[in-house]
Design goal:
single chain; about 160 residues; mainly alpha; 7 helices; about 0% strand; globular; binds zinc ion
Length: about 160
């Protein structure tokens, strides 16, 4: 996914319990957190390895972290917020599975599982993504998020 992660996090926050503390910030942060590895990808690794191979894009890593963090968060009364945070991370990984590829079988395999591939039809990879049919899904996510946001403002 290219531009749909943040609005997907917004939609997820709306589907959660509104009484949980800091649900919106937790959902928004979790929805984009794995892509913070792009800083490492561009400025340290010089784009030498697909950033979906970094540990922040590996479901098993987050499952392990969640397994330890959620009981601690529950103990401090932050279970709902933590749950939304980790759900947003897994939503990010699910959405990245559409075209980007995610190592769902890690640590047993480093294969990137994806539903479809974006062929490099144009010289610029951004143009290849934006003109691929899967970009319509991103626009749908944005449309739904904006619809929910406007509806929430009216009430
Ligand atoms: Zn990502």
């Amino acid at each position: 996914m290219f531009i749909g992660h943040l609005p997907a996090g917004y939609i997820l926050s709306g589907a959660s319990n509104p009484n949980w503390r800091w649900v919106l910030p937790a959902a928004l942060l979790g929805s984009i957190l794995p892509d913070f590895d792009l800083i490492f990808f561009y400025f340290v690794d010089n784009r030498s390895i697909h950033h979906h191979h970094y540990w922040v894009h590996i479901p098993a890593f987050w499952a392990l972290i969640a397994m330890f963090a959620l009981p601690l968060l529950a103990w401090r009364g932050w279970f709902g917020t933590g749950l939304i945070f980790f759900a947003a991370i897994f939503l990010h990984l699910l959405l990245d599975t559409i075209v980007g590829g995610i190592q769902w079988a890690a640590p047993f395999s480093d294969h990137l599982y994806r539903f479809t591939e974006v062929p490099a039809r144009y010289g610029n990879w951004v143009l290849s993504f934006v003109l691929h049919w899967t970009f319509l899904l991103e626009l749908v996510v944005w449309g739904l998020a904006l619809f929910l946001w406007f509806r929430k403002r009216e009430t």
